[in-house]
Design brief:
By secondary structure, this protein is α/β, with parallel strands linked by helices. It folds into 2 domains: 115 residues, Periplasmic binding protein-like II (D-Maltodextrin-Binding Protein, domain 2, 3-Layer(aba) Sandwich), CATH 3.40.190.10; 101 residues, Periplasmic binding protein-like II (D-Maltodextrin-Binding Protein, domain 2), CATH 3.40.190.10. Helices cover 38% and strands 21% of the residues. It has a 5-stranded mixed β-sheet. A 5-stranded mixed β-sheet has the order 7-6-8-5-9, sandwiched between helices.
Length: 264
């Protein structure tokens, strides 16, 4: 056997061995797996339907990000965060709650931005007649008026401002039934347990059991704005920042607008 045939024989033998046993040196490099993250978003109850619709839109491009929501009154959510409850993002229905967290150093600097605006409206059960303005709330036939608890529910804070600006608070305060969040107020009017209620226009829009009487003039209450920010204790700050960026984009804004939010 000459030298050339020896080399050919050795080459065939090595190739056969590699095909049989495999070789770490030529095995394909596995793709680096995308990092998974779980995001918990504590958000004002009035955002429920819009944010739930936005979630699958986001996860189409970010399937490795799992988003969970904790909906409630903004004041209650703020207190939960202050007491150490887990949250990656906070979206409030008023500036005050986010201001407080920011002052206490509980937000990631530079992540605060506004999501949307809203309007406060007076609603009544759908078959109600004869109610055309806020001033009708003082009428004897109106026995119960539902609104949010002003100390913890932004919608209640705005409602309180409107009633006082219109000069009818003292006439109606004995009729007030306070809810723990704006959706409780809506439910009270839907069920007929309240003759009227003050909610956001977005809440009224999702119900076929109530009708809007009138919207409050913006001059009678503080600006209804939804600020959002990443919580400093979040273990997924980069993913939380990305979700906030998505919420500020056109796709999310179109969903918010569909539900009656004011987007800019």
């Amino acid at each position: 056997m000459n030298r050339r045939r020896v080399f050919v024989f050795i080459g065939i033998a090595i190739t056969s061995l590699l095909l049989t046993t495999g070789s770490p040196s030529i095995a394909p490099t596995p793709a680096i797996a995308q990092s998974n993250a779980n995001l918990l978003v504590s958000a004002a109850a009035s955002l429920k339907e819009a944010l739930e619709e936005i979630k699958p839109l986001y996860q189409k491009s970010k399937p490795n990000i799992n988003i969970s929501y904790n909906f409630g009154a903004s004041g209650a959510l703020q207190q939960q965060i202050e007491q150490g409850a887990p949250a990656d993002i906070f979206i409030s229905a008023a500036r005050r709650q986010v201001d407080t967290l920011e002052q206490k150093g509980l937000l990631v600097p530079g992540t605060r931005t506004n999501l949307a605006n809203n309007r406060l409206v007076l609603i009544v059960p759908k078959n109600t007649v004869g109610i055309t303005s806020f001033y009708n709330l003082a009428d004897a036939k109106i026995k119960k008026i539902a609104m949010g608890e002003p100390r913890s529910v932004p919608a209640g804070q705005y409602a309180d401002q409107v009633l006082k600006k219109l000069g009818i608070f003292d006439q109606v305060k004995s009729k007030l039934v306070l809810g723990n969040n704006v959706r409780q107020v809506l439910a009270a009017v839907e069920s007929g347990n309240a003759d009227a209620g003050l909610v956001y226009v977005t809440d009224a829009k999702i119900s076929n059991k109530v009708k809007v009487v009138v919207a409050a003039d913006d001059k009678y209450h503080s600006a209804i704005v939804y600020p959002m920010a990443v919580i400093k204790s979040s273990k997924n700050v980069p993913a939380a920042k990305e979700f906030i960026e998505f919420l500020s984009g056109n796709q999310a804004k179109s969903v918010l607008a569909k539900y009656g939010f004011i987007v800019r």
